[in-house]
């Protein structure tokens, strides 16, 4: 890949404008979105139907005879970590590259978090971690992150998220929340145990970047050659003959990913390369605010 063209500055402007319009006070919004794990316990409160059932403290609920949730006092300084897929799968797109959309989403979130005085860290991975920087604040950290995501030379190779999470798990102590941004094409049932263990330690959010072709094969009236990026093996196919089977498998794989994240108690939002990411991302984050009621810190 010779170049990558994410519209970072334009996307940051639109995303932050949407945030101001929806939430007015960004500080309050982010302190409700990112609770983190292992923070200071404050008290219990009664569970309501609007709450996330995964947050029920079952031991306390049994003791008091009703479902209870723990309330936490948020840390004064949030630490948000980004895990971004830069494998071969992400260097694809019928409308635009998935990697460009991932870069725009990552930097838009990072810019807003850093603008609040909080810190970010990141790891970019394929079968290994190709670039990593631990938590830091300020403009310099943002530019390092944006520069790495825009570097075409780090992209390629097979994706191994399971191996990446296993490596990162002991390094992220103190992290408030973790974003995992990928198409999750290579995700299977073997990944579930690792994700569940990781999410038990760190508040985790998944952002699934997909292209329309990931779910629906184009209606082509001619034979085409496809190539396996891992092995280089080529195959001549007639799209019209395998379209139904392809779409059936693609939908099953997507549902399997959604099931894995749900069972691991990890929120997941899917965003497509043919849509503006701002509205679905802001709507998704807003839903976390509505489902999670936390005590806010005094700044």
Question: Can you walk through the features of this model?
Answer:
This protein has 299 residues and is α/β, with parallel strands linked by helices. It is built from 9 helices and 10 strands. It has a 6-stranded mixed sheet with strand order 5-4-3-6-7-10, with helices on both faces. The protein has a two-stranded antiparallel ribbon with strand order 1-2. The longest helix is centred in the C-terminal third of the chain and has 25 residues. The protein starts with 7 loop residues before the first helix and ends in an 8-residue tail after the last helix.
Summarize this structure as a short list of keywords or feature phrases.
299 residues; alpha/beta; six-stranded mixed beta sheet; two-stranded antiparallel ribbon; 39% helix; 21% strand; globular; disordered C terminus
Q: Regions with pLDDT < 50 over 5+ consecutive residues?
A: 293-299
| H and E order | HHEHEEHEEHHEHEEEHEH
**Global outline:** globular
Radius of gyration using CA atoms only: 20 Å
The profile of the biggest β sheet is: 6 strands, mixed
- Helix-strand category: alpha/beta
Helix share bin: 25-40%
The total of helices stands at 9
Mean pLDDT: 83
Share of β-strand residues: 15-25%
| DSSP strand count | 10
Cα-to-Cα separation, first versus last residue:
45 Å
Strand order of the largest sheet: 5-4-3-6-7-10
């Amino acid at each position: 890949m010779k170049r990558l063209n994410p519209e970072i500055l334009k996307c940051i402007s639109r995303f932050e404008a949407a945030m101001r319009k929806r939430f007015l006070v960004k500080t309050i919004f982010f302190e409700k979105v990112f609770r983190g794990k292992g923070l200071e316990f404050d008290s219990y409160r009664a569970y309501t139907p609007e709450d996330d059932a995964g947050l029920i403290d079952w031991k306390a609920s049994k003791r008091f005879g009703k479902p209870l949730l723990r309330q936490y006092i948020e840390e004064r300084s949030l630490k948000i970590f980004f895990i971004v897929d830069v494998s071969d799968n992400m260097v694809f797109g019928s409308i635009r590259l998935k990697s460009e959309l991932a870069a725009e989403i990552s930097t838009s979130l990072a810019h807003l978090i850093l603008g609040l005085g909080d810190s970010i860290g990141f790891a970019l991975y394929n079968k290994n971690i190709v670039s990593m920087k631990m938590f830091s604040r300020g403009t310099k950290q943002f530019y390092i992150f944006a520069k790495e995501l825009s570097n075409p030379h780090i992209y390629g190779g097979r994706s191994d998220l399971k191996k990446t999470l296993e490596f990162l798990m002991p390094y992220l102590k103190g992290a408030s929340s973790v974003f995992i941004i990928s198409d999750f094409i290579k995700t299977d049932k073997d990944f579930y145990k690792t994700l569940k263990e990781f999410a038990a330690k760190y508040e985790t959010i998944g952002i699934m970047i997909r292209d329309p072709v990931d779910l629906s094969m184009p209606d082509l009236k001619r034979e085409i050659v496809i190539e396996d990026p891992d092995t280089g093996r080529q195959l001549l196919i007639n799209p019209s003959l395998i379209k139904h089977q392809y779409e059936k498998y693609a939908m099953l794989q997507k549902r399997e990913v959604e099931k894995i994240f749900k069972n691991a108690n990890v929120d997941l939002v899917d965003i497509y390369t043919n849509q503006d990411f701002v509205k679905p991302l802001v709507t998704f984050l807003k839903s976390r605010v509505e489902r999670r009621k936390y005590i806010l810190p005094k700044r």
